[in-house]
Amino acid sequence: MKSPAATRTKKPRAGKSLAGLEKEKKKLNEYIRDKVNQLLTVMGTKALDEHELDESDFLQLDPIGIIALSFEQVLEHLKETNKSLGVAKNQLQAVFDTAGVCISIVDSDMRIVNCNEKQKELLVSDRDEIIGHHCYEVYCGKESPSLDCPAIETLATGRPVLVREVKKKSRHFQIVTSALKDKAGNITGVIEVSMDVTEKKKAEEAMRQAEKLSAIGLLAAGVAHELNNPLGNILGYALLALKDPALQADQREKLEIIVEQAKKGSEIVKGLLNFSRQSQPLFEEISIEDVIRKALKNLSSRLLAQSVEVTLDIGDMPRVMADPKQMEIVLMNLLINSMQALEGRPDGLIKIAAGKKDGFLEVSIKDNGPGIPKELLPDIFDPFCTTKPVGQGVGLGLSICSGIIKKHNGSISAGSAEGAVFAFAIPLERKN
Amino acid sequence: MTKDIMLDIRGQICPACLLITLREIANNKFSLKRGQSRLVVKTDHRDATRTIPGAAVSMGYETRTEKTDGYYEITIEYRK
Ligand SMILES: Nc1ncnc2c1ncn2[C@@H]1O[C@H](COP(=O)(O)OP(=O)(O)OP(=O)(O)O)[C@@H](O)[C@H]1O
Ligand SMILES: [Mg+2]
Fold first, then answer.
1. Residue ranges of chain A with pLDDT lower than 50?
2. Within a domain: residue A214?
């Protein structure tokens, strides 16, 4: 379209009639009105009525000027809106990313649209490309969605679904899915929120174990008590029978087996009693050196058989108030652990040291075995924490030690440096 | 302490209410934006109750229209 100005310059000025000028002015007016209306429509309002204003009033208002100023404000408003949208988006992204739960958005085709950092951390370990890929492939490592997938149900019904527990990539999750809908109410995707309940599950497990433990403790105490007498009798009568000079060799052999097995049985009973005994220590003045030597004597034949060398480094030691039987249990457990760690080594060495330190009596036991795996260290004093096969260990030894030392107001620690180091300390003075 | 700027365009042979209101908004932009004043437009033009709020909202203002006896009162103000 030609602009009115261009039309005008083409025509010779001199030959212009008044009517012609009027006509041109009208045309110009219409042009301005037309543009004003266009601009007003852009601003979101209805165009001006044809008859709303007569020509001269209309021009006098300076409509273009007014609209220019108004547009300035419209633009300012848009800029501000944009800015606050940007801020809101950043805030949302931050919330999204720092949320303690995994959040993922998938489309109706189950392709990932977005996911937060937590989701990546826990459920995407082995890949960079996530967006646009199927969620069951990335998060669940499957080629097709599983039948009980909550996202599928939500996509089909539009209703939220809660899955109490599901195992993915060796962690436990609680999952909630809810539908994303467009303005018309059509389901366009699913938001999946997964909460990592692995720790909670572990805690529950520990609770159950603790309960089991105290149940075992009660049972053990009862059984041990009841078994002690019959075991004593079996042993006594077997020993008596062995005294009979008329015994045949094979009868003697069988009786010896009975004696041996009855002794083993009472050892087990003793162990159970130790474990179940929640009793307070019976404090008396003892020499820790005596206790150490006693423990070593108990184990001497095994130490010899395994050819483990033991060194003792004991300085001038005061006597301390402690329960000698319980201290012996602690030392036995630590020494047996070391011996088990040294099994099969020709050069096994256990170093025992005892000394005074800051008002405490400190005893350390160090071996040159394989040491303690780093991931085991934090839980090593927990009951049932064990790396040993069934029959060789149940994981109670160190938890018993830690219980005893705590009752003596002391502390016990485990470390690993070219073998394992265990150290415990109990106060030299007993306060009432 | 918001001051009301009154703009009475009732009964005037002035149907271009929108343009006049827009001019008033432009003239008072700073005090409006700072929340020092609001613009109260009185009009008996029914169409204006749609065009004025439409334009004001796209400039970031809030509007409220009340019908009083025989005319409309449109309040335009800026809220952060
Ligand atoms: N000296 C050591 N060297 C290496 N690992 C050790 C040592 N002492 C303990 N551990 C590790 O700590 C775990 C827990 O020890 P703990 O004495 O509590 O239980 P356990 O020896 O397995 O069983 P239990 O003592 O009940 O027979 C062991 O299974 C072992 O893995
Ligand atoms: Mg042990």
1. 1-11
2. yes
Say if residue A308 is exposed, middle or buried (CB neighbours under 10 Å; 0-12, 13-18, 19+): buried
In terms of DSSP bridges, do strands A309-314 and A349-357 run parallel, antiparallel, or are they unpaired?
Answer: parallel
Q: What is the pLDDT of residues B18-56, one digit of tens each?
A: 888 999 999 999 999 999 999 999 998 888 888 889 899
The answer to whether A424 and A329 are in contact (CB under 8 A) is: no
Whichever domain contains B37, its CATH number is: 3.30.110.40
Q: Judging by beta carbons within 10 Å of its beta carbon (0-12, 13-18, 19+), is residue B57 exposed, middle or buried?
A: middle
* ipTM exceeds 0.95: no
Q: CA A307 → CA A189, A350, A369, A392, A415, distances in Å?
A: 69, 11, 14, 20, 24
CA distance B1 to chain A (A): 24
Looking at residue A366, its amino acid is K
Q: What is the enclosing helix (H) or strand (E) of A235?
A: helix A198-242
Distance of CA A118 to the CA centre of its chain: 12
pLDDT single digits (tens) A176-187: 999 999 989 999
The residue with greater pLDDT, A308 or B14, is A308
User: Which residues of chain B have a Cβ shorter than 8 Å from any chain A Cβ?
Assistant: 14-16, 18-20, 22-23, 25-26, 29, 47, 50-52, 54-55, 57-60
Same domain, yes or no: A321 and A268: no
Select from A140, A173, A196 the last residue of a domain: A196
> How confident is the model at residue B14, as a pLDDT?
52
- How does residue B78 score in pLDDT terms, banded at 50, 70 and 90? very high
